[in-house]
Design brief:
Distance between the termini: 26 Å
Number of strands: 5
Order of helices and strands: HEEHHEHEEHHH
Oligomer: single chain
Helix content: 40-55%
Shape: elongated
Number of helices: 7
CATH architecture of the largest domain: 2-Layer Sandwich
CATH superfamily of the largest domain: GAF domain
CATH topology of the largest domain: Beta-Lactamase
Strand content: 5-15%
Strand order of the largest sheet: 2-1-5-4-3
CATH class of the largest domain: Alpha Beta
Largest sheet: 5 strands, antiparallel
Length: about 220
């Protein structure tokens, strides 16, 4: 079972705030996106301040070339102040320039979710838009983002655990009421349901609670308590 969707929402909200702050605070930046590399190698733009920025991110994933691609695969910082003439990215550079981009800066930072890696991607329409101050600010924001996301992830995990505990407690209560048994026997019954159906205990509990809300305990079909 996947994590509670509310967990992903709060992390994405933190990343959205990061992207907006980057455009305001980093010299030369006109738009920003955040790329996440999944453990399986897949790449995704999770937030973007402009539609065209998301589009050129996707182009880099397709070409397997470009600053945002490089920053989450093999380099921690990539700066190109003349995309049209970039020797490092001969296919992507001219394509980005044709879409109105002159400079691009990408900085890698740790994403605290199951080994994912993230990159802060900054775009500008003019050439030579980014300087040393831009790099330092981008690196600082990347470090700050990793810390903030770490706290957000831990808070989300704690919230999910508390939610799971509440469901299990409620399910135990439902079984106790239906079968007239004590807490330990009711909990063991949930464990047997989990093993019998090869379903996580938290899912068994959530299903029982949901069924009870519909006036049906939903716990028949397995050996009685």
């Amino acid at each position: 079972m996947d994590a509670d969707p509310r967990s992903r929402l709060s992390v994405d909200e933190a990343l959205d705030t990061l992207a907006s702050a980057a455009v305001v605070s980093i010299r030369g930046a006109e738009s920003c996106s955040v790329t996440v590399r999944r453990p399986d190698g897949g790449l995704e733009t999770v937030v973007s301040t402009a539609v065209v920025t998301r589009e050129v991110d996707a182009l880099q994933y397709e070409l397997r070339e470009g600053p945002c691609y490089a920053a989450v695969t093999d380099r921690s910082l990539v700066l190109v102040n003349d995309l049209a003439s970039s020797e490092d990215f001969p296919r992507y550079g001219p394509a980005a320039a044709a879409r109105g981009f002159g400079s691009q800066l990408a900085v890698q930072f740790a994403h605290p979710h199951r080994g994912e890696v993230a990159g802060l991607n900054l775009y500008a329409s003019r050439q030579e838009a980014f300087d040393r101050d831009s790099i330092q600010m981008a690196e600082m924001l990347g470090t700050h983002a990793a810390i903030v996301l770490g706290y957000a992830r831990r808070a989300d995990t704690l919230g999910e655990a508390m939610h799971t505990r509440e469901d299990i407690g409620a399910a135990v209560g439902i079984v106790m009421a239906k079968y007239g048994v004590g807490r330990d026997r009711a909990f063991q019954y949930l464990v047997r349901l989990s093993q019998h159906g090869n379903v996580k205990l938290r899912q068994v509990a959530a299903d029982i609670v949901a069924a009870a809300d519909d006036n049906d305990t939903g716990i028949d079909g397995v050996d009685a308590v």
